[in-house]
Amino acid sequence: MREPVTVRCQMDENGRLPQYESGGAAGMDVRASVSFVILPGQTVLVPTGLKVAIPEGYELQVRPRSGLSYRTTLRIANAPGTIDSDYRDEIKVLVANTASLTDWGTQVLNHPELAATLGADDRVCTLEQFLQARGIDLPELTPGVHVPVFLDEDGFPLGTVRIEKGERIAQLVLCKVAQAVWEHVSDVSEHGQNRGGGFGSTGTV
Predict the structure, then answer these.
(1) Where do the domains of the chain lie, and which CATH numbers do they carry?
(2) Cβ pair 65, 169 in contact under 8 A
(3) Would you state the torsion angle of the CA atoms of residues 53, 57, 60, 63, taken in this order, to the nearest 10 degrees?
(4) How many angstroms separate the CA atoms of 142 and 140, rounded?
(5) How far is 127 from 86, CA to CA, in rounded Å?
(6) Alpha-carbon torsion angle 142, 148, 150, 154, nearest 10
(7) What is the pTM of this model?
C-alpha cells in the first residue's frame, strides 16, 4: 500500500479539493473555480481557487485530462507544469485552445453535423470584421483579412470552448524530486555508459 503524503491546502469560496477518482489513480482531478470562454488560438490562465503547501522533496505536476483532450481542442500548454514546494500562490492552469479562427474545415471534419448549419442566419463575418469588433484594427492590405469566420449562435467563432465553473480541467500528480549537485569533469563519456546516437537513432518502430 502506498504511504500517503500530507499536502496542506487552502481554498477560496469557489475552490474544490482535488480528488482521486479511483483507488489506483495517480492523478487528482482539479477544477476551474470560474467559468471561461476560450476563443480559438487563445491561451489563458484558468484559476482553481486552490493554494497548497507541498512538502519539501516533492512537486505537483499539472497534466492534461485525457477526456478533455479527446473531446475538445484544449491542451495544457506547458504540460507537465510544475508546482514547486515553495510556491504558495493560487494554482492556475495554463490552457491553450489549439483551434484556428479561420480553419473551419477542420471543425467540420471533427464535427460533421456543423456542415448543415454553417453560415446559417448570417452567422459569418470576415476575419477583419471579427477583430475590429474586438477593438483590433489591421493595417490596410494585410493578407488574409477577408477569410470567413463562422460564428455560433452566441456570436463566438467555431472552435470556441466553454469551461464551466466546477468543471475538471486538469489533473495533479504528486511526485518525488531530487536536486542536482553539479560536478565538473573533463569527459562525461568516462562516466557510466555512452549509448551514442541522437534523435531517432534507435529506430522508428
Answers:
(1) 8-99+160-177 (2.70.40.10), 104-150 (no CATH)
(2) yes
(3) 180
(4) 5
(5) 44
(6) 50
(7) 0.83
